[in-house]
What does this fold into?
Amino acid sequence: MLDALAGAREDEAPVPPRRGRLQQLRRHPTVVIGGLILLLILVATLAAPALTAWDPLLIDPLARLRPPSADHLLGTDAIGRDLWSRTIHGGRVSLIVGLVVAVFATTVGLLIGLIAGYNRLADALLMRVMDGLMSIPAILLAIALMAIAQASIMTVVFAITVVEVPRVVRLVRSVVLSVREQAYVEAAVVVGSRTGKIMIRHILPNTLAPLIVQATYICAAAILIESLLSFLGAGTPPEVPSWGNIMAEGRAYFMLAPWIILAPGIVLAITVLAINLVGDGLRDMLDPRFARRL
Amino acid sequence: MFAYILRRLLATIPVLAIVALVVFSILHIAPGDPAAVIAGDQATPEQILAIRAKLGLDLPFHEQFLLWVGNVLRGDLGTSIFSNLPVGHLFLQRVEPTVALTIATTLVTVLLAVPLGVLAAWKAGTFIDRAVMSFAVLGFSFPVFVVGYIFIYIFAVKLQILPIQGYRPLADGIGPFLSHLVLPSLALGMSFMALIARITRASMLEVLSQDHIRTARAKGLPARQLLFDHALPNSAVPIVTIIGVGVALLLGGVVVTESVFAIPGLGRLVVDAILHRDYPVIQGVLLLFSLVYVFVNLAVDLLYVVIDPRIRY
Amino acid sequence: MRSARRLLCAAALVALAAGGLAAEARAEGTVIRSIPIGNLKVLDPIWTTAYITRNHAYMVWDTLFALDENNEPKPQMVEDWTVSDDRLVYTFTLRDGLKWHDGAPVTAEDCVASLRRWAARDGMGQALMSFTESLEALDDQSFELTLTQPVGFVLDALGKIDSNVPFMMPKRLAETDPNEQISEVIGSGPFRFVADEWIPGSKVVYEKFEDYKPRAEPASKAAGGKVVHVDRVESIYMPDAGVAVQAIASGEIDLHESPPTDLLALVESNPDVVVRPNDPQGYQLFMPLNHLNPPFDKKEARQALLWGTSQEEYMAGVIGDARRYQTCPAVYGCGGTAESSAGSEALMTLDVERAKKLLADAGYAGHRVVLMDPADNPTLHPAALMGVQTLRRMGLDVDVQAMDWSTLVQRRASKAPIDEGGWNTFITNATVTGIANPLIHNFVKNCEQAGYGWSCDERVQKLNQQWALETDSDKRKELIDELQRVHLDNVTYVPLGQYRPAIIYRKELSGVIPGPVLFYWNIEKKS
It folds into this structure.
């Protein structure tokens, strides 16, 4: 979903000459801000048990739909579970899905993209499949894929990875194609360097920077899609709290207890925002040329 | 040019074929036997087998696929397992809300985002520019369902100036029709708006730096005339492209928006169908949405020929 | 850009024109807009037992007999009936002037075919057929049922109000394979189903059937005259319950059949809205147990569940408002004719330690317990989570498997071990009317008639048979006490309490009939 934007982003400042890392960071405060927010969320989810006395699964029939208070920081849901505890525990699912999908999708995408960029025949075939996959709206494709197996975090990861791979493939392939035409690579081919060597020496390094940037956007997109799937009832199993299914369970009570939806919803939005900030900053920092070209 | 259009049209065929294959295979490998669903909770295994045979579910994969493709090409999308109604009929019932929502969203976002982008480019580097760009990042990070509920909370629950949810067909009058569309199209349009504003700004910046515009600016041409009559048309290509890309976002977003705002459109049809494993409906909607996506992008490509005189084929 | 703008304008115009074409004159007259208990997916009330389909069917189809407010079966489509002295031959004569919605007259042959199709699916119907020698039409208006031995429940079966209700359909529909759905919705009931306006998942429309001939008696539960005072009923499904409640307050909707109890607070003080429990008996929440799979194949393990369960916890957690629920030890429900508290000590006492000890006695050694959770059901999903917590408290290793309700319905039929798609337990509900006696309560039947769970205790079979044939009410009462003791000793299943959901409606409506189904006849709407 975000790659559309990734493709469209345009850097604002002229390309800065290379300087020290620190100075670079200062020129890109968004990376720092986004990174700090992310770190905070990461720590909160990792240290969740230490940050709350409540078990996220504990049902308390006598404390249903409580508004936020000192006892329940974000209130309770319809069966008396503590929302603060559920929200920070729920972040684990989101972050795991985001990270794992980012790694899987870029790895698989990189492999397929390299093959496509290097072999004409495979290229024609693979790119048609990718075009086909990309023309099914991402969310719908992911929901449909969820129908294949029992709802679990692994199924969610699988479904979102399938949705994201084509975008990586396209990116890698375009980089491979353009790098191949550059003089030094052509020269390497002419002097008879082996394909594998050319790949590792020349092509991989060139794809690395855009891939890292792409990976952050995929991470954000994966977190969004996961929450959407869970919200629509096709995501992680309801027993595992995740931002999307906490919201889904709060839908019926929105008029009475809006905090059930708003609390995880806003945390989710802030997380995605932070990742996008990091992504934007990284893109400007790592590969201004790439950003401009797209 | 005609040859280009023809070539472009032909190129959509393999894509659609792949879509059909992907959609069909996903549902084919999914567990859960449609025949068992049709037979109901008291059926015997023999009855289920009989229904499988009747539906052709006992045929090998490729035969089932060809059978299905053949039917689709003849315009027969099959029958819903649950409602027993033809999928085409279900589409027709549901198409108005979805089309209304999509058009309203496109209009709202284009009308708001393009001027915002132009403004940001014109005031590049100022506070206004920063504000617009921050909005763009924010807009892209807030998922439709979160924005949707925030809007409902503010405008419908607290201020009570707009309806909370639901859809009124145009036949009920233009007032209720529009008032029910405001919040969903704004919520759905958020990320789309962010996208278009950014692109507009970027391509305007590029055009504004070109010589003839600089000259015009130096000659003291009024800002409005300069921006909208000279600069904007020249930056139309990337903007139109992104509107095309945006349609894909919209089609996905529609599914969620319709669910949040209880709009009985195609999006809710497919979510219900997926949750209840109503395979013919899922296949139909996925195919339809992909078709729309492919053709919108085709239209965008063809539109280049019209709006950019420099592009010739 | 200019042409792009023109394109957009053109697109908008096309959309407006299309909308205009779709505009048709809205039906004039009185309309009740209501929110049903669920999403109507299946139109055939014989094919499914879903309550939403049964409720829909009461609009469209009529029944031979129907229960009145004293739960006695009264003739509805039937004018007269006689029974021979040996109580083996029943003769029924239909009322004059009954018509199908397509204009054809209702005949005895239609009814015979409908009864056959119903009896192929319904438990009570199957029981009736097992005592039936023949069922035949005598002429256009009368038919005869001949039994092999006298039984006490013929009229109870024909007047059954819980799924599956024996609705009368035209012969051509009634001849549909019972395992396939009917292809048309044609009945002889007080409302006509408007097929063109049905939007699955969103809206169902019924129109008054002008040719319907109501009985002369006043309406009483499902019995009596079904006099329709409105022209049209629009049943609108809204997935978000909270919003639906708001729609009543704003007057967009006239009636809500099943608002979540928590949300009643939003409208309770609204002078324009009436909040009231419609079914005096309400629903029983209960936990079926699979008697085939360990650990609940052992009686001690099942008994442990009774000691480890607190009905109060379930009711407070799932229903919340103490005015709307009660704990109830009776397997056949409280407030009905078969209420009993015999043998309920374990059920009504919470003693987790004793539960743990019983589990140990049963040789429980950490077996996985599969609990199916219908995550799409607003009542049963929280109940399932409550169940998980209760079972874990006793030390059981619970594997919660979330699924949608329709998947659960499919899967609960599986007798397989848990590793092969089987299950141990789940939580569901039933109207108390639908479980009010041993013949209709499918979940506590045993052995070859057993419902989901497949409990088998020979005593139950014998007692059920005795009850069915017994006509003396005191003796019946004793048999019920005995059955109750057996069910709670063998733990056929675990009753979790009884609750009465409220309905809410605008004060413009009057004449809403109390009952487990919301009937739309007798309701008047002031404009």
The mean pLDDT of chain B is 83. Chain B touches chain C through 50 residues (CB under 8 Å).
